[in-house]
DNA sequence: TTTTCTATTTTTGTATACAATCACGATAGC
DNA sequence: GCTATCGTGATTGTATACAAAAATAGAAAA
């Protein structure tokens, strides 16, 4: 697999990772030439990467001033999760009314995938199936724009995710919540399903809290 | 007022306007050198502008392929408004519980501003006060991230807005809806206030429909 | 000491040059 | 005739050079 083209993208990912790992202080200024030297590229692709990072919200670009790291505080992560929960809840609410038979099948398939992966203790498979399940719900909302924005927020939260934390007892509980959501959807109870999803995401958020508390506001990168 | 620095920003605004006005076909490829010549700049700031436009969702950048115009269809605009309505409704729901006394004062001030502007027939003042009113609600949600994302979506919708369309009878109706929302908030009825806001935004969306229908999928820029 | 202005240095923004990749058409093979 | 391969031109990605703006430091004045 060639991992070549688009230096800008590669740099963006690396810096994203570094910021999430706490390698930079919040508000810290990023020096373009220094970073360019560090990644062994010119300033051109580096500046592109900085713009991409701004789109993700990890840096703020101030004209004629430079790029400043915007590392989300714990408060902000909670805020982001509050919105994530509401958006997923909205997806479920709309999906309950709009889901197509084909989508319902894929939803059930994903749910089965979660069950099997969990019973066999395959964490990676569980996360994959879990991702499919949520993805189908976004799609079934019938609002492609909402689906895109939800995926975008998910991606924005992902660098701060630590899967291992889920592996305790949370995984099994998560399964049960999925089942409850799907049942509510089957009964056509949109609001109930939405509420369950909101709680489901909020519960997820707590594992992030633990991560943040563990890593702290300032941690070293590998 | 100096309108100088940051050619990239200027270009971005101009292209944004052009796309909104229908100067480009959806899916049309944007040639970098041609655009650079057109705006009399080099490719460097032009490419920055294209990235900014991608962040707004008006173009899609495909690696090694180029920039392609993504003009929202009527369907997509409706989808965007559906989400906008839900986000504003969420802001109201949270604000009902979390609003501070100071914010409540500013909310009432903005509402008064709307009334006065309307009674005096000053449309511009109305839009300004209306913007303040919604802005205070975003802020009062107590979720700064939600507020930012809502503002971002508002900005993303704004190029497709045509104020004149509101001036018919919609303006007065809008006022009444504001009043109803604020009253529900005062009574602490979060869900009711949220529902009112959702309807309020949806009603707004219909004026956009009219605009789209009038301008058509392909219109000429000024 | 504090402030303000200025000269210098640093850093950002833009233009240009070069390299890599893609699109397209011609040609060869089946 | 159809497909595949290759070569050429066009287009995107990156590096470098230059211009403009801001940060810094130092000196002069209050």
UniProtKB/TrEMBL annotation, chains A, B:
It comes from Salipiger marinus. Gene3D superfamilies: GntR ligand-binding domain-like, Winged helix-like DNA-binding domain superfamily/Winged helix DNA-binding domain. This is DNA-binding transcriptional regulator, GntR family. It comes from the Bacteria. GO terms for molecular function: DNA binding; DNA-binding transcription factor activity. PANTHER family: TRANSCRIPTIONAL REGULATOR, GNTR FAMILY, TRANSCRIPTIONAL REGULATORY PROTEIN. Residues 5-72 form the HTH gntR-type domain. InterPro entries: GntR_C, TF_FadR/GntR_C, Tscrpt_reg_HTH_GntR, WH-like_DNA-bd_sf, WH_DNA-bd_sf. SUPFAM superfamilies: GntR ligand-binding domain-like, Winged helix' DNA-binding domain. Keywords: DNA-binding, Transcription, Transcription regulation.
């Amino acid at each position: 697999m060639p991992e070549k083209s688009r230096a800008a993208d590669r740099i963006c990912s690396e810096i994203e990772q570094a910021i999430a790992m706490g390698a930079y202080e919040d508000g810290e200024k990023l020096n373009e030439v220094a970073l360019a030297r560090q990644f062994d590229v010119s300033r051109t692709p580096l500046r592109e990467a900085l713009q991409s990072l701004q789109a993700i919200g990890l840096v703020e670009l101030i004209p004629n001033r430079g790029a400043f790291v915007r590392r989300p505080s714990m408060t902000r992560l909670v805020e982001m999760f509050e919105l994530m929960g509401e958006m997923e809840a909205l997806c479920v609410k709309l999906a309950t009314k709009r889901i197509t038979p084909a989508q319902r099948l894929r939803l059930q398939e994903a749910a089965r995938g979660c069950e099997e992966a969990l019973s066999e203790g395959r964490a990676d498979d569980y996360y994959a199936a879990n991702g499919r399940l949520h993805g189908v719900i976004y799609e079934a909302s019938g609002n492609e724009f909402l689906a895109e924005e939800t995926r975008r927020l998910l991606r924005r939260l992902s660098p701060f995710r630590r899967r291992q934390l889920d592996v305790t007892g949370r995984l099994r509980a998560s399964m049960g919540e999925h089942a409850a959501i799907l049942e509510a959807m089957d009964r056509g109870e949109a609001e109930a399903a939405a509420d369950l999803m909101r709680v489901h995401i909020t519960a997820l958020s707590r594992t992030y809290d633990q991560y943040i508390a563990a890593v702290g506001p300032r941690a070293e990168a590998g």
